[in-house]
Design goal:
This is Acetylglutamate kinase. It catalyses: N-acetyl-L-glutamate + ATP = N-acetyl-L-glutamyl 5-phosphate + ADP. Belongs to the acetylglutamate kinase family. ArgB subfamily. It is found in: Cytoplasm. This protein is globular. It is an alpha/beta fold. It has a single domain, classed as Carbamate kinase. The relative contact order is 0.16. The two termini are 35 Å apart. An eight-stranded mixed sheet has the order 5-8-2-1-11-13-14-12, with helices on both faces. A two-stranded antiparallel sheet has the order 3-4. The protein has a two-stranded antiparallel sheet with strand order 6-7. The chain has nine helices and 14 strands. The protein binds adenosine-5'-diphosphate and N-acetyl-L-glutamyl 5-phosphate. The site of N-acetyl-L-glutamyl 5-phosphate has 16 residues, from α3, β4 and α6.
């Protein structure tokens, strides 16, 4: 159903955005798109949001995951995905598939989608954490295989792309000092990027409305909490697998200088714009101190 707004209502919506545009212009916002929320139609709406934010001066960076898509490709080649503590156990063959799917497929598709909406000025640039030392990692516990923890982010490379009017789209494969690639959890990589960029906000787009009191009941959305409250919640049994790295990343992001972290529903078209540029808070907001 298409809702038709009166011209005066459209003007009201635009004017409502004005203070938010003023607040965020010139600031960096890291948007992490989870594999669970990747879908042709919603990616198109997200591409429009990112371009609109860029055009009003928000320094928007898109970081993507792709866990379910990697699972599907592993199964196609006859390998069963294996996780420990929410991290993929990554042997050499799995690492090849992770790179193929994240860097070779999802990153390319997102760049193409953004550029398809950009008119005569294609602005999206795909980069992998392996490129020019963007994400340096050290190996995590050897039980995980080729899984790395981010130890350094060359944030100046991202800022240079943004200064040139480009929109970076980042795959979260990192490399160690010798150039060996490692698989990195995308929630954690996005956190490291946001902290290194001194971002104002990090926004996680996923396939639920936000953090839920009861994981299976969307009516139990928790609209806002502090990082300390979030760390308490992490101990609770109602927080399941995929949400654990996301919550930890949100708490760490705000404790390490990012002003706001949000978990919002990537399935809802234009949820990013609604979060940033309207009076309607959506999803779950995390801050270091209570500010409400
Ligand atoms: N308390 C909770 N609130 C919301 N989601 C939860 C909770 N516990 C577990 N989850 C699960 O976490 C998933 C999000 O993580 P994940 O599937 O890894 O997403 P992404 O691909 O976006 O990183 C949700 O789809 C939901 O099934
Ligand atoms: C080490 C590790 O677990 N890496 C993740 C990277 C992708 C990811 O995090 O994707 P989502 O954001 O869709 O979950 C993986 O291989 O699935």
């Amino acid at each position: 159903m298409k809702i038709v707004l009166l011209p005066s209502e459209i003007a009201t919506v635009l004017v409502e955005a004005l203070p938010y545009i003023r607040e965020f212009a010139g600031k960096s916002v890291v948007v992490k798109l989870g594999g669970a929320a990747i879908d042709r139609e919603s990616d198109l709406a997200l591409a429009q949001d990112v371009l609109l934010l860029r055009s009003v001066g928000v320094r928007c960076v898109l970081v993507h995951g792709g866990g379910p898509q990697v699972d599907a490709m592993l199964r196609r080649v006859g390998k069963e995905p294996e996780f420990r503590d929410g991290l993929r156990v990554t042997d050499a063959e799995t690492l090849e598939i992770v790179r193929m799917v994240l860097v070779g497929k999802i990153n390319r598709d997102l760049v193409a989608t953004i550029n398809s909406q950009a008119g005569s000025e294609p602005v999206a640039v795909g980069v992998s954490g392996e490129d020019a030392g963007l994400l340096t990692v050290t190996p995590a516990d050897s039980a995980f295989g080729f899984v790395g923890n981010v130890t350094d982010v060359r944030a100046e490379l991202i800022h240079r792309l943004l200064d040139d009017g480009l929109t970076p789209v980042i795959s979260t494969v990192g490399a160690d000092a010798s150039g060996q690639p490692y698989n990195v959890n995308a929630d954690e990589a996005a956190r490291a990027i946001a902290v290194a960029m001194h971002a104002e906000k990090i926004v996680y787009l996923t396939a639920v409305p936000g953090l839920l009191e009861e994981a299976n009941d969307e009516r139990t959305l928790i609209p806002r909490l502090t990082s300390a409250e979030l760390r308490e919640r992490l101990k609770s049994a109602s927080v399941g697998k995929g949400m654990i790295p996301k919550l930890k990343a949100c708490a760490d992001a705000v404790d390490q200088g990012v002003n706001f972290a949000h978990i919002i529903d990537g399935r809802v078209h234009h949820s990013l714009l609604i979060e940033l540029l309207t009076d309607h808070g959506v999803g779950t907001m995390v801050r270091k101190e209570k500010s409400w």
